[in-house]
Amino acid sequence: MKKLKKILSNSFLWLVMLFFYLPIFYVILFSFNESKSLTKFSGFSLQWYQKMFESRSVREAIYYTLIIAVLATIISTIVGTLTAIGLSKSNKVLKAVVLQINDIPMMNPDIVTAIGFMLLFSSLGVQKGFATILLAHVSFCIPYVILTVMPRLRQLDDNLAEAALDLGATPFQALTKVIIPQLRGSILSGALIAFTMSFDDFVISFFTSGPKVSNIAIYVYSAIKRINPTINALSTIIVVIVTITLTIVNVVPLIKEKKKRGISDEKVSA
User: Fold this and answer.
1) CA 257, 248, 139: angle at the middle one, nearest 5?
2) Phi and psi dihedrals of 35, rounded to 5?
3) Residue 247: inside a domain, yes or no?
């Protein structure tokens, strides 16, 4: 009976893995297809990668996606981290109110947020374009940074900043040399989440972008109505970049930890 349960659980796990990852492998495979067919693999070719890089619209979509994601990540990480630090020193009522408001963009459906931004920009007479899409991305990335940094702040000793000030540090030095180094891991996690959310967003981008600004999500949506194998090539490159980034982010800390353990073991043995 136990063996049967184990077999069933393993089978279910493999089915779930296939459900999630088989479409990705399918896209990667047909990005190298010689023909436009999305059902029959006729031969190996790199022509769709070549056409992708030759396409001006693809290059512009990649450029706007990266520049908006990077700027949104930097701005939201700085604002979100400083807001979280400020909230940690605020009274309970103010902290509770701000945190409840902070949860609204995350719980709110994207379509509602997108329509809200569209109506706001339209009512103010602001022409939609790079600035509007960047502001929208910053606004929905900040709550994720705050949510990521706050748990780490709760674990810190409240007297750290006061001790730094008593030892002669300025408030800025206490912030940058005492508090922020303790939050480095959570800040990095918040930045990665913000970058991912901005890079992957479609709905809010679609409603706040102008005719001259198009990110990868909008480009794929506009091109998916017709057979366009360059989308497979673009998707494959994104998957490879994301996989490499996740590998580096997860492997580098493990290597550092092993080195620290090796050094500590050598000291103990000595």
Assistant:
1) 110
2) -105, 175
3) no
Query: DSSP of 22-40, one letter per residue?
Result: HHHHHHHHHTTBSSS-SS-
Q: What CATH number is associated with residue 205? A: 1.10.3720.10
pTM, 2 dp: 0.80
Q: How many domains in the chain?
A: 1
Range of the domain at 214: 57-239
Does some domain include residue 18? no
CA distance 102 to 222: 32
Question: Does some domain include residue 104?
Answer: yes
Do residues 178 and 48 touch, judged by C-beta distance below 8 A?
Answer: no
Residue 146's pLDDT is 92
Token reading at 257? 């930890």
Distance of alpha carbon 91 from alpha carbon 71, whole angstroms: 31
Task: Give the residue carrying structure tokens 């006729």.
Answer: 42
pLDDT tens string 144-178: 999 999 888 888 877 777 787 777 878 788 888 88
Closest CA to 88 of 138, 159, 144: 159
Instruction: Tell me 44's DSSP state.
Output: B
Tokens of residue 54, six digits = 């030759």
Q: Could you identify the residue written with the tokens 């982010």?
A: 249
First to last CA, the chain: 52
Please check whether residue 233 lies inside any domain of the structure. yes
